[in-house]
Amino acid sequence: MTLYPALTDDMRRGMLQTMVLIRTYEEAILREYHADKSPGFDIGAGLIPGEMHLSAGQEPVAAGLGLHLTKDDALTATHRPHHVAIAKGVRLREMTAEIFGRETGLGRGRGGHMHLFDPETHFSCSGIIAEGLPPALGQAFAFQRRGTDRVAVAVAGEGAANQGAFHESLNLAALWKLPVVFVIEDNDWGISVPRAQSTSVQSNAVRGAAYGMPGIRVEDNSVEGVYEAAGEAIARARAGDGPSLIEVHTLRLWGHFEGDAQGYRTDLDGVPGRDPLPTYRNTLTAQGVLTDSDFAAMEASASELVEDAIDFAKASPTPSPANALDYVFAEGARS
Amino acid sequence: MTLYPALTDDMRRGMLQTMVLIRTYEEAILREYHADKSPGFDIGAGLIPGEMHLSAGQEPVAAGLGLHLTKDDALTATHRPHHVAIAKGVRLREMTAEIFGRETGLGRGRGGHMHLFDPETHFSCSGIIAEGLPPALGQAFAFQRRGTDRVAVAVAGEGAANQGAFHESLNLAALWKLPVVFVIEDNDWGISVPRAQSTSVQSNAVRGAAYGMPGIRVEDNSVEGVYEAAGEAIARARAGDGPSLIEVHTLRLWGHFEGDAQGYRTDLDGVPGRDPLPTYRNTLTAQGVLTDSDFAAMEASASELVEDAIDFAKASPTPSPANALDYVFAEGARS
Amino acid sequence: MTAALPTAPLHTVGPNLAVEPDAGTRKLSTAKAMQEAIAQQMRTDDSVFVMGEDVGPYGGIFSSTTGLIEEFGPTRVIDTPISETAFIGTGIGAAIEGMRPVVELMFSDFFGVCMDQIYNHMAKIHYESGGNVQVPMVLMTATGGGYSDGAQHSQTLWGTFAHLPGMKVVVPSNPYDAKGLMTAAIRSNDPVVFMFHKGVMGLGWMKKNRRSIGAVPEEPYEVPIGKAKVVREGTDVTIVTLSLSVHHSLDVAEKLAEEGISVEVLDLRSLVPLDRDAIVASVSKTGRLIVVDEDYQSFGLSGEVIASVVERAPGLLTHVSRVCLPDVPIPYASQLEYAVLPTPARIEAAVREAMGGGVAS
Amino acid sequence: MTAALPTAPLHTVGPNLAVEPDAGTRKLSTAKAMQEAIAQQMRTDDSVFVMGEDVGPYGGIFSSTTGLIEEFGPTRVIDTPISETAFIGTGIGAAIEGMRPVVELMFSDFFGVCMDQIYNHMAKIHYESGGNVQVPMVLMTATGGGYSDGAQHSQTLWGTFAHLPGMKVVVPSNPYDAKGLMTAAIRSNDPVVFMFHKGVMGLGWMKKNRRSIGAVPEEPYEVPIGKAKVVREGTDVTIVTLSLSVHHSLDVAEKLAEEGISVEVLDLRSLVPLDRDAIVASVSKTGRLIVVDEDYQSFGLSGEVIASVVERAPGLLTHVSRVCLPDVPIPYASQLEYAVLPTPARIEAAVREAMGGGVAS
Ligand SMILES: Cc1ncc(C[n+]2csc(CCOP(=O)(O)OP(=O)(O)O)c2C)c(N)n1
Ligand SMILES: Cc1ncc(C[n+]2csc(CCOP(=O)(O)OP(=O)(O)O)c2C)c(N)n1
Ligand SMILES: [Mg+2]
Ligand SMILES: [Mg+2]
Fold first, then answer.
1. pTM over the 0.95 mark
2. What is the value of ipTM here, to two decimals?
């Protein structure tokens, strides 16, 4: 029995559309990020300052997951959050405004690209490796205690799977049968450290057994593979049968962060050929599910949404320095 | 092929002798600890103040391990360290003096029962759960880099196996093929929390697979089982083949710490019958390996050693308050 | 673990409560006062639950949760694995979804295994979200030494928590404040770290000061977070202190009163927010300031108190000194531990020195 | 990972080295000065090795280890998994066995995932062992903000480390001190936390102060741990500061000199031990103290500096103020971040206020 809908052609096109939207978004951020940092790259300068971790190449993880989630489900992401945020339905304008550090942003410009919080879609992220996992447990705990069938998805990289928080979180989630799905994005690299130099096993999927939870690895950055694996796991969680672990072998198409020359990277030549976007486009085209004009339309609507969000961000006011100390606490000392 | 000597009758008697020594020691500490805390138990009062975690019932873990280790090997223990310290060959007088908080103690009275450091036998312990594991990796690292065949043994409780440090340490040890043996003492309880309420799997041995290292569980608190499992693992480490994980199902014969009424404990009735000391004594007797007078001799020599250590401690000077600030640093600011 | 609770409204702070009402005559230990505060809030707010190591049948290693599991059951009083990062983070996530977790970190000394969740998440999420996400959570933790528990189980560390922005920090010294501050902490929409000294809990198995048992009103009430209290009025010397050291300071003040030395004792009760006005007000009367703090002396509370006075009233101080834990790991042997703790003897000597006009070293 | 190294004698500190020799004329960035110090010690002492995230081919995210793996290979310059507790603990264990690890914690902001190994083990083992076990280890870590890296990647946190006893803490502001302090740290038999601000490294991809490149002797030498330095003499106001804020303070001092305001700038260089004599000596000349600190203001360095002066010389200060990071998570947007950082503008305003005799708020 399948516990989730079988993929229809519409859903396939929908996943590709999401992938296109994400890629279009990351290309636009890339453009805006570098637009005003030269001459001589200055990380702190420009309309988008600071570290920038883009998710190009990892769209299949987001698109495959997104179809299964409603806005009432929770998702915690990492320092590389844009793709899953978009697939989760985070408001593009407010997210972009936050990345531009504007008062209209999700965090009024206080958080930034690694700290996107959207209560409407129960989305959050953290810049500390693996530390986004424990809060997802708590969201799942609240969902469970209230007798809902809502789930929490916790996303982390393969490098994060060697952090203590990963272990503690999987054990606790399994012990309490929390409705959580752990998704490991294996993009082969943790900054400059290849997976083989960080991880003592070939696949993190085997680590599920250490907690008595199902563990599965999706190969080839397959968006449909992610859809199937996530479908199983999320249905399981909604049914009250507890957490699952999914590892997806995905691709870091660009540098770890912008400005990363990737001199350490031995696999660069093979990278372009592994780009999941043309791959999935060609698959759907070959299957007769997608025409060139369909794809052109996808690109057009994606550009429209993205440029609208960028325009919104640029047109938004910057936060007033006078208010820098606001929002430390929700309330003064109560008296 | 066996990579370690098969057990001889002498070795069996030797392990029993070690178990007797440990039990005699813990009974003596128990006696001295409670001697002057009444009327009305005051944890801070008496010749031995503070928390006291005794290891009665867990002697098989120590005795089975000890036979394989030389004083050049390292061992890191927990808040419950006496049994493995004795099996590792830590000087009984100086260890006891430390527990009594005397200037002649291993730490000049600064450390106490949870902080025993003996450079001669490369023994140390920590009161923070699972945090004794990482330093063992470093000792093994130094042994490996110097081309020796020395090993480090890291001991922790079953409760500690759900702490992040456990996960990080096993991954790193496996990744670097460090000569480490991880020994989990499963005494069914983490203070008042039964194993089933802390751990999502039946046996921590299965967690070895999450790091590509052998994992084995020794049942029935069997000292000979520990000897065999430890023999394999230590030989493997000495040969440069990397770490192993051993879980021993042992027994917490007494409370978590002294003063623990154990009202929460559901398994108390069964406990006396599971005492490993009479069990192993009877086994050896039944096998004709041990006579009653042999055993009496063991008890006599154990009492002699233990009482000598206690006398030494009691006769030793207490640290001078004037020197309380000594030993924070090895040297002043160098100039 | 699957029983469903009724959904509670997000971030309710419940009905208005009395603020620092008359203490009445009923006496409780600090531990019982904490238990009562938690139980009362659990009765009126289904979103409140308790989580931590040995908080269930054991009742908390230092009796902070005794009796709760019997009344509220294992779905609301939850024993955890030894996984502080995971269960504190679970509290954070539950708080984000509108629950009100009371999470126990058994000893403050253990912060090192879970501080990221505490200071980079619990404390920062509200600010990073521009006020859109609240984290109404209480992190309670046992602190302090004096019973030879060694360097890893005797620290107070409140200076470490107070230095890092985004979390309120309260440190009650007695049963009345413990109940009122715990009630306020649970009802607060901000994360509150509630640090209780083992020596003020009134435990049967530890040396205790008579003030660890005191009058506590039965009905729920609040002690405002961020308000210090003059617990003894005086005119010669101001002792600014907190937690167990309040008891020692009062004992010394009583003794020296017989000699005509008038010591004012200010119990900070909260570190974040810090009631600097109360500190300055007291020193304005006495001109002499002694900070008594069981935390490590340097880079912590004692320096902040002194600096806050000098910033606001540069000429005010005629004398200042500190009676703190020197910058040394806490020794095991009693003779050594009591040489570094802020004992009544050290406090008394500091007061006498202050009256002599010199500067304590 | 199996190549054997020659056994090094335990706890060697090597030959005597020059102490603060003449700087000469060769100019290096702070990053290059650190790399050179580490490389020189690795050449003369086989027990020295480097371990951390991205310290190998990448050369350290902030270039602290560039070029080392090329010279010393992967057995002595070791990339680790993202497992700070495990690899810092590995450094501790190796140090206990007589090696001299230089371990990098990529950002000080990450201390929350590994602080137990640092403060309960690295820092306490020597004391707990009664001096029988030494932990000769260097923990180097990047600190500070100013480039919109957000609340979890912009903190300095040196006050947090300095508050906890048993580890020395050094914070160089320039290439000369960075090389000398790193050399002293590696050769020290005590654990040393080496905190370098990203803004003083002289990185090509970050806004930099001209002083992040300076004269550095080629031969190995030491800057003594625990000695502050007057980096500019003055008579009107003393600025006590450290790290990047030293550069800002010097810029302000130079500017105001043209107006006849004479500012003395004291670079602390070490927090543990803290050179209180140097602080008092400077304030004795000026009577006016401004503490400039990029760490959070309350319960940290700035309060300790002020308290240390008042304790030793109560009447001395005619003016005191602090230019610190207020108690707020560090905001992302530049406009907000630069509103909370101790900028030259804020420092200048504080100096003018000091000269006006008022008290900065
Ligand atoms: C606890 C902690 N350690 C180190 C870092 C620095 N850091 C940021 S991203 C990163 C690599 C993460 O690799 P991975 O988990 O595979 O995610 P990816 O970047 O590949 O998406 C590191 C080490 C951090 N943010 N937090
Ligand atoms: C990080 C940390 N959390 C909690 C504690 C408190 N504590 C001390 S012993 C203990 C139980 C340990 O159980 P286990 O690991 O099974 O060892 P056992 O006591 O059974 O030998 C706990 C929770 C601690 N010392 N360190
Ligand atoms: Mg990765
Ligand atoms: Mg146990």
1. yes
2. 0.97
